[in-house]
Amino acid sequence: MNFISFSEEKCVNCYKCIRACHTKAISVFGDRQENDEERCISCGECYVSCEHDGFFIKDKVQEVKDALSSNKKVIASLAPSFPGAFSLKEGEQIVSALKKLGFYAVEETAVGADVILDSYEDYTENSTLDNLISTSCPSANYLVEKYYPELKKYMMPVVSPMVAHGKSIRQFYGEDVYVVFIGPCIAKKVEAKEPQYEGIINSVLTFVELQKWFEEESLDLQKFDPQPFDRKGTNKGKLIPCKIKLAEEKNKRFEKLVVTGVEQCKELLESIKKGELSGLFLEMLSCAGGCIDGTGIPKDAVSYHVRKKRVRDYIKKSDNEEGSNICKEPIDISRKVSAKEVKEHQYTNAQILGVLNSMGKNKKEDELNCNACGYGTCRELAESILRGSSHVNMCLPYMRSKAESLKNVIFDHSPNAIFMVGFDLTVKEFNPASEKLFNKNVEKIKGKRIGEVISEEIFEKVLETKSNMIGKKIEYSQHGVILIANIIYLKEQSVLMTIMTDVTSEEKNKEELVRVKKNTLDVAQSVIDKQMRVAQEVAGLLGETTAETKVALTKLKDIVIEERGNE
């Protein structure tokens, strides 16, 4: 069951979630991450570790609201750690608040824990096994089933208090009720959906989800009058799974040992696997502080120790109270141990070395084992890459080396002059193009004032304004060059990064083009002047011949008129 979703937009690729994941069940594909359900033990540590809300639990509140609006009898099973999750004057104030939301009945999950405790005591009295492992924490169960299958024989075939209580609720109220478990555990969402528990628990809400629901409804828990639970468990039941308390007379062969946190559980299981420990009744909890510090508990209000005290005070206050009538008749609390073993592929040393070499780790000393990628060692990352769960770009030293290598290539081979000038105007770096342009060897100019090369005026202006100078055209006649200067003000590094582009040839080409244009214009003007002179001369000649023609024609006209008169 994929109960955790991932937001690509909020991920900053810090790999903190991978560091938090004890079974490396998170696969990274570019900027996208996914939970590998086969490897995941549903502890929820990835969700808790992400400070950018990159992971979020699929909210089931609307699902419960729909059940409430359908007029079903919705029964709440409330985990014993609830006083640590909410600020209450009286523990029973939460009962009133839940009934205000519409719950038909509110019961303590400890009702189911009492049934489980009786079964545990009988089992320890009659067992011939070397060790026993309690099965109240689903995440711890998945750890054994998936990664220590040879130790499954020690797992007690008994359901968790949540499942036992769900069965008890259905027996007490009828099979048609809608059962909601509310607790500090994300893994319970997965446990409730296991095929063997189908139809027992309808929905699971974490205390985080319930708190959000209370806030949406503007419910202040401290303003409610306390209201008794419809059924409640004994104080012994309230301690499960935080701390199992077994009857001494029935637990003669086994020493009780409570272990919290996945890494501690793994260490203990390794010792049992090697045969180094025996005679233990193990209660393993995946959360480092137990259920009071579960991944489904709001952690923005009070510290772990305050939560622990609240739970202790609530249990102490009910020292003399008896549990409710639990079952009309015995219920089936048997649990099947699942076959979920994770098959780890064994990669050859040559395959692992091939991946390490691709990350620039060519010898043992190159394997820094820095854990920046989320994996404990470079070889673990290499195996994850071979498995298809990671990629080489997750190795930060490799990426840094690659980036620095690229930076050096650009710096050394750029055709532009690139140099760094400190705020004291001394040269810090001087690339080969700068050496060639200004005819200065880097060793001779480094540490000297930039004024020994070019004028300091533009640098002083940038320091004064504390703003970048971009695209400034400057001519340095002493070097015979015209440059486009860009000076970047880097406050944190206390340097001025300068990039100068030689545009001398382009500028000379521009001057030549202007000269050619001027010459062309001069020639054009000369031709125009000549044409005008020719036109004027032609016009003059045409004028003279026209006048002569007019005189001749006039004389001819007069002769003709005179002849007609004589006739």
UniProtKB/TrEMBL annotation:
The keyword Iron-sulfur applies. Keywords: 4Fe-4S, Iron, Iron-sulfur, Metal-binding. This is [Fe-Fe] hydrogenase large subunit C-terminal domain-containing protein. Gene3D superfamilies: 3.30.70.20, Electron transport complex subunit B, putative Fe-S cluster, Fe-only Hydrogenase (Larger Subunit), Chain L, domain 3, PAS domain. Residues 2-28, 31-60 form the 4Fe-4S ferredoxin-type domain. SUPFAM superfamilies: 4Fe-4S ferredoxins, Fe-only hydrogenase, PYP-like sensor domain (PAS domain). Residues 351-412 form the 4Fe-4S domain. SMART domains: PAS (SM00091). InterPro entries: 4Fe-4S_dom, 4Fe4S_Fe-S-bd, 4Fe4S_Fe_S_CS, Cytosolic_Fe-S_CAF, Fe_hydrogenase, Fe_hydrogenase_lsu_C, PAS, PAS-like_dom_sf. One of its GO terms (molecular function) is metal ion binding.
